[in-house]
Amino acid sequence: MCTCWKRLYDFGTRRLKCWGTPRMPAYVLETRMAASPDNVDAFLHRLSKRLDKAAQAELSELRRLKRKENLERYGVMLGLEPDNEIYMWDLRYYMTKYEEQQLQIDYLKIAEYFPLERVLAGMFDIYQQLLGLRFVALQHGQRWHEDVRLFEVRDAGTATLMGYFYLDLHPREGKRPHESASDGHERAQAPTIMEHLPTEVMSDRSLARSSAPATIQSAGDDSASPTQPLHLSEERQVPVAAMVANLSKSSGSRPSLLRHEEVVTLFHEFGHVMHHICSKPRFARFSGTRVERDFVEAPSQMLENWCWDREALQMLSGHYERFVPRAVHGGGLVPEPLPHQTIERLQRARCCLIALQTRRQIVLALFDQTLHHQPTRDRLERGKSSKRNSRSRRRSTHLSDVLVEHMDSAELLAQLQRQTGLVPMTPGTHFGASFGHLMSGYDAQYYGYLWSQVFACDMYASAFAGRPLDARTGHRYRHLVLAPGGSRDASDILRDFLGREPQEEAFFHLHGL
Known about the structure:
Elements: H1 2-18, H2 24-29, H3 37-74, H4 88-103, H5 107-111, H6 116-131, E1 133-138, E2 149-155, E3 161-168, E4 180-183, E5 215-218, E6 230-233, E7 240-244, H7 260-278, H8 298-303, H9 310-316, E8 323-325, E9 333-335, H10 340-351, H11 354-371, H12 377-388, H13 409-421, H14 448-463, H15 471-482, H16 490-498, H17 505-510
Parallel strand pairs: 3-7
Antiparallel strand pairs: 1-2, 2-3, 4-7, 5-6, 8-9
Helix pairs in contact: 3-4, 3-11, 11-13, 15-16
């Protein structure tokens, strides 16, 4: 990997020099919330330091579990002490075993409370109540497969058309394997106004409609080029979004049942759909999720919290075979909701071993930042001299402490994993060679997952905790966070919604740290 990475890095460096920028992080972060590599480094360091005690305690629990299992399996063999250290190759095994023992959760049994149609109905109810919207299933309109469903979205108060969304939820041959939500912006350069989507606009080009009130269009030719005259259309184009997943289909009398993690993913991706639908900037370029890369996941990560809330889980769940008397509205029977005891276990599971898992994400974020921040020889020598003059200094996760002269990426990752991830990498393995985020649009930006998650927790804890279905707060969220799209800086959006500067404390509180 080192030779390959060196070639890629050299190519990127030449490109950046043409733009007058010495390093990738400085270039890409200039237009992100974090603004600079130093801010990213400080953020990751603060998180790592705050998690250190909890991560050490969690690792001790896994070692204790392995020691107990070794004694039960091997006993005392010729007086030899079994190896009770945790390695990358058995980490996941002992994490799963620890969770099973501590929480006693049967996720297959829990899935019986999450039939797909029940989850969709509950999810729609929550989003409609929270954001002041109304979803209507449309029977007409062109679709790319018979399994695909189409919905119209209107404002619940004014009946104003907000947009459309598709649900393409089941696997089939040739379909991409991962879940996502997207719109079709930039597939066509000069989209026209969408007025009759269900009947006549549902062509291939109709999927390219933007979610903004005004776009730059050509003066007559659909193939707009930089040399053609352009003008602004002030008529709003309603957005079209699609949520794509690969959930199992119903089989006989047994409906499609979702694991809780699939419910969380569904809720998250539908949050992106709502971001597309609710955004109302002037220009299409700033519509929907076209926000800073280190903020784009925050709205949907915030909405994931509903999947652990007792009231929301009662709305999302309903056993596919067991029924209970309806408490209100004339009696009758309704599907049995998820029991309170099970909800409490799911809430505890969310916090289980969270420090180790988060430290692993910090390792990958540092790895990404460091590879894209290769220093000059002078800086390396200054760093080495500083280390020699500060022998008593404690280990830290600052980039200046882990930079390596020859860019041995495997050793770099191993070093970061030892001092931050706590569990050593397996010798001879090269995880970095398959770490696609390094070159797939998240170059020097992998930290963004953690960054957005921290501020998503801040939004939820400050506004929705204890009142997850409060329509007034949901209205503020829709208009202050979703409506601007990328037309305002994410930092300003957060400050306006929170009424203060964003803080990190809520992340630790919500995860029991």
